[in-house]
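Let us begin with a simple case.
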Amino acid sequence: MQPLTRRGFLAAGGACLTLPWLEGLSRAQDAPVYTVFMRQANGVTQGDGALGEEDRFWPATPGPLDYATLADQPDQVLSELAEWASWMIAIKGLDYGFTGPFCGHSGGGNQCLTGSRPSDLPSVNFSLALGESVDNRIARYFDQNGGEPLTLYTGPRRNFLEEVLSYRGPYDRRAAEDDPWNAYQRMLGPVDLDALVLERRQSVNDLVLEQLNDLKNCKRLSTDDQRRLDLHFQSVRDFEVLACRLNDDEEQAMALLSGQGILNDNRITVAKMHMDLIALSFACDHSRAATLQLGDGNDGTMYTIDGELYPNFHWLSHRITTDGDAGDVIYGAEDMHHEIDRLMARTFIHLLERLDEHGLMEQSIAVWCNDLGNGVSHSYESVPFILMGGGGGKLKTGQFLDYGSTPHNQLLTTIAQVAGVTEDDGETPLEHFGHEDLPSGVLDEVLV
C-alpha cells in the first residue's frame, strides 16, 4: 500500500470534505460526481448542406482520440482541445426530438437539457420546456445547495430570449445569475466574507468531527481506516483554506467587474469568472450540478478575436445582417463563425483547467453543448455534445462517436445515471430522462 500524505489527500479535491472510503465498512461510498453544462448558441460550423459549407468542427472519422489525432487536423475546431483529448468524448449525430410552432433558438434551448417538448402555448420565442432539465434532476437528488443547481449566465438583458436552459419542471424556467460577484457572495453568505468563511469552517469542522467520533468507535475499522480518518481530520481546515475561497486578486477582479457582465468586451472574462465559481463550488461540495449559458437565446454578442471586432454573432450564424431571413450578405461570415467556435473551445478549456487545478477532472462531467446543430438552417439534427472528464471512472474517454440520428435524451439519461441518479426505488440506475415519447436507455458506448 502506498503511504498516504497530507498533500496527496488534499489533491483529492471535492472528495476531501466527505468522509474517506473505509475498507472496514460493509458498504463502500462512491466519491461524488460533479456535472457542468456550458451552453453555446447559434450552432457550429459543421457543414450546412443548404449552403454547401464543409464540416470544420469534427475530426475526420469516428474512433479513438489522442493528442496527435486532433492536433494533426488544425483546421477543425476540436483541434483546440488536443491537449485534453484523453478526457474527451466527442458525440455527433444526436437529434432533438421535437419541432413545432416555436422559435428555433427558444425551442432548441428548451430541449437542450430537458429532452422535453417545448410548449405550443406560449409559443414562438416565448415557448417553454414541458419538463425539468437534467441539471435540476441531478441537483435535487442530492442535498448540496438545497438541492438546487448553480445556474449562471453571461449575456445581454433585453427582455427577449434570455435564459433558455435550466428548468425546475414544466413551464418553470429557472432564472440565472449574470454577476459572478453576486453569485460568489451568495455562495459564502453575507457581505462580511472573512467572518462568514471562518464561521463556515468552524461549522464544517464540527460536523465532520461528529462523524469522525462516531466512526472511530466502530470496531470494524482497520488500522489503515483509522489513519485515513486522522488524515481527514488534519486536512479539513487546510482544504477549506485552499479550495473554498477565491484568492484576494480573484475577489478584487470579480468585484470590480460587478454589474458589467452584459458588455460585449467583458463577455468572455465574465464567463471565465463564472467558471472559476463552478470549479470552486464543486471543490467545496457546495453543489453537484451547474449550468453556464453563454449569450442570450440567440447570442448577439459582438466578439473580439485577434483584435478584430466581429459583427453580431446571431447575424453571422445567419450569414446576413439580420436576426431574420432577409438581409445583406456578410462576406466571410462562415469564417468568423468558425473562429467564434474556436473561441468557445478555448473558453471551455478555462473551465477544464480550473477543474483540473482542484483535482476534479476524474470526478467531473463537463459538457459543451448547443441549442442548434447549424445556425443557418436552425437544425435540430446532429447537435454537438462534447464531454470532458472521467465521471468517477464510469466514462470511456478518448473517443469520437457518431450516432447517426439518435434522440439526445439518451445522452441526458446517461449523464444523470453516471452522476448517481437512480429510479424512485433509490437503487435501480435511472433508465429514462425526458419526454415519455422518447426512448429509454443509455448510450452504452459512452460507458466503461
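The second case is a distinct protein. As before, the sequence precedes its C-alpha cells.
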Amino acid sequence: MTERVVAGAAALSGTIEVPSDKSVGHRVLLATAIADGEARVVLRGPGADLESTIACLASLGIGISRSGATVIVRGARPESPAGVLDCGNSGTTMRLLAGLLAGEPLSAVLDGDDSLRTRPMERVAAPLREMGAQVTTTDGHAPLEIHGGALRAADHELPVASAQVLGAIAFAALRCDGQTTVRLPGQTRDHTERLLAWMGVAIRREGMVTSVWGPARPTARSLEVPGDPSSAAAWLVAGALHRDAALRLPGVCLNPTRLAMVEVLRQMGATIEVEERAGDGPEPVGEIRVRTGDRLRPIRLGGAEVAAVIDELPLLGVAMAAADGISELRDAGELRVKESDRIAAMVTGLDAIGARVTELPDGWRVGPGAARDAEISTGGDHRIAIAFAVAALSGVAGTVRIDEAESASVSYPGFWADLDAIAAVPA
C-alpha cells in the first residue's frame, strides 16, 4: 500500500491524454471475443478493471495477444475455464461476462476481491434466469456460479436503470431466437447498443426501450477506444476550481450520455469548451478544454440527473465544496453500494479538508469552509483517491495525505504522472 501527499499548485497547464474509456473498452473486448473474425483494439492506459476482462477472456480460451497498446482478439466460442474467473474489482466485468456466458454450453464461477463481493449481483442474475440460464449468487453477491445453455427471448422491465444489466441481457440475447426487449425506468449509457449495431447486430434503442433480435454474431471490427470522460472529469474539476488553469483533453469519448458532468459544471459556471472531431468507431470523439473562470455557483442535484453523473459524483462533491454557497446532492443512494460507501467516504473526507458538510441518507449537503490539511482514508476506492487529490491540487483543501493511492490505477493508471505533469512549482 502506498501513500501520496498532494499540495496546491501555482498553476495547472498542459495537454492530457486520458486512458481509454472503461465502459466502451469492456464491451469492445467482450463483443470481439465472440465475434466472427479478428480485430485490433487499441487501449490507451488500460486500468486494472480492463485487465481483469482481458484475463477472464484468456481463461475462457479466447485468443488474445498484445503489442504495446494494441490488443489483438480472435473471436471464438468460450470454453469452460479451468478455474475461477477472477473479475478483480470490476463489477462491469462480472455483470457483462455473466450475460455473455449465460447462453454458452459451459460452467463457470465468477468471483472478485472483497469489495466486489459486497456489490449487488441479483439485479443481473434474475433477468438471466428469466431467459433460462442457471445463475446462482452467494446471498445476492459474488461468487456467481453459471451453468449456461439454451436461452429464450424475454421482455424485461428493470427496476434499476443499469447500463451493466442492460448490457448483460443484450449479450445473452445474442444466443436467443427472436426479440428480447429491455425496458428501463430511466436513461442509461447506450454504449452496448452503439457498439453491437456498429458490429452488425440488429439492436435498437427507442427512448428507454432497447430491443435485440437474435440469434446474432457480431462482426469483428478494429478500433481505438476513445478517452474516458470520467477520467477527464478529474481535470475538468481541477481546471474549473484552480485560480490559474488552462487544460486540453484530446481524444475523449463525447457520447451524449457521458457528458452530463460537463453540463453540470457549466451550470455551476465553469468555462468548458467541447469540439467534436472524427473518430474510427461507433462513439463520437473530440477535445475538451477547461480554463479558470469565475467562482462556481452552488447547485442542487437529484432525480434523473444523478444517474448520468454517478461515477463523477465524488469529484462533483469537491466542486460543490468550492462553490459560493450551499449545494445539495439527493437520490444518490446507489453510491453506498459502489467500491465503497461513497457517501460516507466523501462526507468524512470533505469534513476533514474543512468543508461544511452534512451526510444525508441518499447524498450530502455541502458548502465552502476554511481549507485545511488532512489525511484521507480511501477504503481502496479509486474515485475517492482521485477526488481528494484534485481537492488538494486545486486549493479546495490544504496538503492532503492519501492512503492506498495505488487504487487510482483501477480506472486511471497514469493519474499521478499526469497530475505531476500539469502542476507547476508548488505554491
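The first helix runs from residue 22 to 33. The chain has two domains: 4-19+227-422, 22-217.
Keep these points in mind for the review questions at the end of the chapter.
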